[in-house]
UniProtKB/TrEMBL annotation:
Species assigned in the record: Streptomyces fragilis
Lineage: Bacteria, Bacillati, Actinomycetota, Actinomycetes, Kitasatosporales
Transmembrane segments: 20-40, 46-65, 72-92, 98-118, 130-149, 155-177
InterPro entries xref list: Acid_resist_chaperone_HdeD (IPR052712), DUF308_memb (IPR005325)
Protein known as: HdeD family acid-resistance protein
Keywords: Membrane, Transmembrane, Transmembrane helix
Region of interest (Disordered), ranges: 197-236
Basic and acidic residues bias (residue ranges): 208-230
Length: 236
């Protein structure tokens, strides 16, 4: 019964990893399509962002109403109202929202790059070179985005969104196939152990009781072998 439950559990885990790989393939396809149609990917990312803000604001408002009478009430109401307002604005004007968020992303890259470069030069830790390269890359990316802003707002966010989908999908595919391989290795190891156990049982089942007793005495030590060969010698 325990073996059947273990087999069912391995099958369930194997199927879960398989669905994870399928989801990864879907994300990779979506990322590739988004890289081809960056304008559509930008519009899609804006609409998703707007709906997330709107739904999050409604849920936050519901939590704030449940917490009325506490110090969290007014803060929750203000945050929920801001989320709802931002979500409505993004859904109504996704193009203007893309322009604003592209500028925000460029400034974020610039400030992050400057802080990484300054921090790496001041601290000079074990990751000095890698942090310096990250800072330089972020600074360069921010300058490139700002240089073409606002005309690049149609494809910058869509490109970032598509790349995120692509790499997340590749990670899910690697996790899914890696998990299935691990489950297969565990299953093969259990089969090998069970085969060795069954082989040992069959070997001893084909021998007589006397032969099994002799083999057991052989494994206990040389002194038992001497006593078996010479018999019990009475003390002098």
């Amino acid at each position: 019964m325990s073996r059947i439950r273990a087999k069912d559990e391995r099958t369930r885990i194997n199927r879960s990893f398989g669905w994870l790989a399928v989801l990864g393939v879907a994300l990779v396809i979506a990322g590739i399509v988004g890289l081809v149609y960056t304008g559509l990917a930008t519009l899609t990312s804006m609409l998703l962002f707007g709906w997330l803000l709107l739904i999050g604001g409604v849920v936050g408002l519901g939590h704030a109403v449940q917490a009325r009478g506490t110090g969290f009430f007014w803060l929750g109401v203000v945050v929920a109202a801001l989320n709802i307002a931002a979500g409505v604005v993004i859904l109504v004007r996704p193009d203007a929202a893309a322009v604003s968020l592209t500028l925000f992303a460029a400034l974020l890259f610039l400030t992050g790059g400057v802080f990484r470069i300054v921090g790496s030069l001041v601290v000079r830790g074990p990751q000095f070179g890698w942090t310096l390269v990250q800072g330089a890359f972020g600074l360069l990316l921010g300058i490139l985005v700002l240089n073409s802003w606002p005309s690049d707002s149609r494809y910058v966010l869509g490109t970032f969104f598509s790349l995120a989908l692509l790499f997340d999908g590749l990670g899910l595919i690697a996790t899914g196939f890696g998990g299935r391989n691990v489950v297969g290795m565990v299953t093969e190891a259990e089969r090998a152990d069970r085969g060795r156990s069954l082989g040992g049982d069959a070997y001893y089942a084909g021998r007589s009781d006397a032969e099994r007793n002799v083999s057991a005495e052989d494994r206990t030590g040389p002194e038992h072998g001497d006593r078996r060969a010479g018999g019990d010698v009475p003390p002098q």
